[in-house]
Predict the 3D structure of the following.
Amino acid sequence: MATIRKVVVTGGSGRVGTYVLRELMAQFDVTNADLVAGRVDTRYVQADVMNLDSLRQAFKGADAVVHLAAIDFDWKAAPEKYIDVNVRGTWHVLQAAAETGVSKVVLCSSISACGLSEMRPDWRPQSLQVDERHECRPVQAYSVSKLVMEQMGLSFVHGSNMDVICLRPLAVVMPESFAEYVKFVEAPDRNWLFYYVTAADVARGFRAALEVEGLRYGTFFLSADDTSRPEPTLEWYRSRFGELPELNNPRVFKQQPRASIFSSAKARDLLGWTPTSDYLELRKTWL
């Protein structure tokens, strides 16, 4: 595979996109393709994922595309809007990339692809830690859109010479919105799995996905190693949800009692990515 030099980032003007652009600029020739210019001082081209021709223009001469542009779950959009923009927009990105000779696309999927973020009583972790082999069973439109985009990415791997890597960040935290996250997770009787990852670590994950060679396709959770609870993970899980599911590797929770519900071992092994955060330290320094 040719060395990647020129990278186009769709949605680089967004919250996470800002971190990704800054991380990639040190290594690559980066262009931000978005509806509006962002805060990062890099090359900008106006593009809309719902406009295929604008993407064809934006991707000319690019070696790789990082696709971040989407309607986020936090926007509380209508179900059909998630499907229209996130699914059709991703197809447009993949199609335009293949047509213009892009060699690699890195898609921003989500933890939501597996459906566990929906916190449905009928769909809980089937084993701990949850990794990429875990069954995906989403029902909400946003979650379904993320799973569909992963499958579309695989279809382009099968049908072209383009490599596609799908990253599944968990709840992304950053200093400017951390107080809001803490308020959410510390609400009394919160029914959740208390996962997170920092925006800076997510950005490094996208860089790692661009740099890795010889990997045609893959899906990867990007998770912090710990949870956003102070007590041991298996204790709060049992108190909230009852019986524990099967433990894939009990040693993980012995070595790190506050270990995340989600494993990033695959990203560690294949991408060389390692999270750097400690939630209890973040809480001290960011609040």
Notes: The first strand starts at residue 6 and ends at 10. Residues 6-115+131-173+196-223+261-276 form a domain with the Rossmann fold fold (CATH 3.40.50.720). The CA atoms of residues 66 and 106 lie 5 Å apart.
